[in-house]
Amino acid sequence: MVVHFTEESILLLADLHLGFERELEERGVIVPSQHKSMLPRIKQLVDSHKTSTICIVGDIKHSIFPDINYNWEVIPEFMESLLEIAKVVIVPGNHDGDLQAFLPRSVVMSDSSGISVDRPDEKLGVFHGHAWAAPELLDADVMVTAHNHPVIRRMRNVSIESIGREGRMRYGRTIPVVVKSRLDRNCVRRELGMLEIPDEPPASLFTLPTFNEMFSGVAVNTPTSAFHGPFFENGCALLGASEVFSTTGVYLGEVSWLREQFNETIKSRPPGN
Q: What burial class does residue 87 get, using C-beta atoms within 10 Å of its C-beta: 0-12 exposed, 13-18 middle, 19+ buried?
């Protein structure tokens, strides 16, 4: 996501999960290191949108604990490369324990309750989503979170009529998406034991997908999917009533409608298939 203010633009990325490949290797799957492909993608976004700051919304590393060689070998150099592109700000996620040890001094890192980006024309709240956001973030009309890695799950028709194999539907690849929810800020205040503000309109809460192309997440169009984290688990934001957008900003529909379409696809399969 790119947020444009009057005098600057900020690029927001989430859930890099650097080192996920090492977990795949333990399962016998060998894939290239993803940090090498992420850097040119990030640079292209920064150049295209002329952003001055890169804000990473949590889960830079995949391993929750720091003591693996990959973290020491890759993360410091990766962060140095990012600093050559733009200013770097990090809002830590649940996988970022002891992350500070790997970061160059000039990287700005908040605590897990998030940050408030205050500009004369707008206020933006940013937090990872595994924990409650700082109370001052509720003053922002727009909030950005991550943690759930939203995707759309596709179905593929693999029927081969020539050999009589018809009505075969299989899961296809997933597509990363951005989810926009209505956040009941007074609901959050009640959960945090704060005073409510009468007649306050809802904030817009955007959930970003993972930037790691090897990673998947919550398929929002499947009927039983649910977002984790206190905002969704306590009913302050409702996934079913949320809107879904592609990563290029194309509106795809409400989650409830996408789930209906997914159900119709499943129902269309002949009995026994």
A: middle
| Per-residue confidence (pLDDT) for residue 159, from 0 to 100 | 52
* Dihedral sign from CA coordinates of 254, 258, 263, 268: positive
Q: What are phi and psi of 164, to 5 degrees?
A: 75, 15
Kindly give the interhelix angle for 35-49 and 69-83, rounded to the nearest 10 degrees.
Answer: 20
Helix (H) or strand (E) segment spanning residue 145: strand 142-145
Indicate the fold that domain 2-267 takes in CATH: Purple Acid Phosphatase; chain A, domain 2 (3.60.21)
> What pLDDT is stored for residue 181 in this prediction?
98
pLDDT band at 165 (very low <50, low <70, confident <90, very high): low
Q: What are the Cα distances from residue 272, in Å, to 57, 63, 156, 165?
A: 44, 42, 17, 12
What is the rounded distance in angstroms from the CA atom of residue 70 to the CA atom of residue 63?
A: 9
Domain positions in the chain are: 2-267
Q: Are 212 and 16 in contact (CB under 8 A)?
A: yes
In this predicted model, what pLDDT tens digit does every residue of 71-108 receive, in sequence order? 898 999 999 999 999 999 999 999 998 999 999 999 99
